[in-house]
Design goal:
Layout: H1 2-11, E1 35-36, E2 42-48, E3 56-63, E4 68-74, E5 78-84, E6 86-91, E7 101-104, E8 108-111, E9 117-120, E10 125-132, E11 137-139
Antiparallel strand pairs: 1-2, 2-3, 3-10, 4-9, 4-11, 5-8, 5-10, 6-7, 6-9
Length: 152
């Protein structure tokens, strides 16, 4: 089931960039994190280019138990698969942890470009995502940042 959802996730992006010339594969236990933030979040670009217009890319993001990301939006649509734990996500410019929806492992969700949202986890959570470039994260408070998403 999880493999089927991952294939759906990865095949959901339009083919707009050159194919990767070497195979790649990752499991929740094999991600070699490239960016670890002070809040414990971790990020890894798995393949592709975040900065190139129209180029597809895939990433892994780890949210430790108790961590929350302030309200923000992304420049392009994010397609997310929850591989481990439970992602909690809500929409709006004010963080309201009571109003979030819980997405357990195996869930797939789409966060549209420009839609302000906030997210976090009460248990260690790992997501795999796909999007297209150029990728930019804009925080409503302009001072917050997590691994892989520097503040503007």
């Amino acid at each position: 089931m999880i493999k089927s959802l991952m294939l759906l996730l990865l095949s959901s992006l339009p083919v707009v960039s050159a194919a990767q010339d070497t195979p790649g594969d990752w499991s929740p236990d094999s991600v070699d994190w490239q960016d670890i933030s002070a809040d414990g979040t971790r990020y890894r670009l798995l393949e592709g280019e975040r900065e190139r217009p129209g180029a597809a890319f895939s990433y892994a993001f780890f949210v430790p138990a108790g961590a929350w990301d302030a309200p923000h939006s992304h420049s392009t649509t994010a397609r997310i698969f929850v591989a481990r734990g439970e992602l909690r996500l809500g929409y709006g410019e004010r963080m309201d942890k009571v109003a979030v929806k819980a997405y357990p492992a195996g869930s797939y969700l789409v966060v549209p470009a420009g839609m302000v949202h906030f997210d976090g986890a009460e248990s260690d959570t790992l997501i795999f995502g796909t999007a297209s470039g150029p990728w930019k994260t804009t925080y409503t408070d302009r001072g917050h940042a997590t691994a892989g998403t520097p503040a503007d």
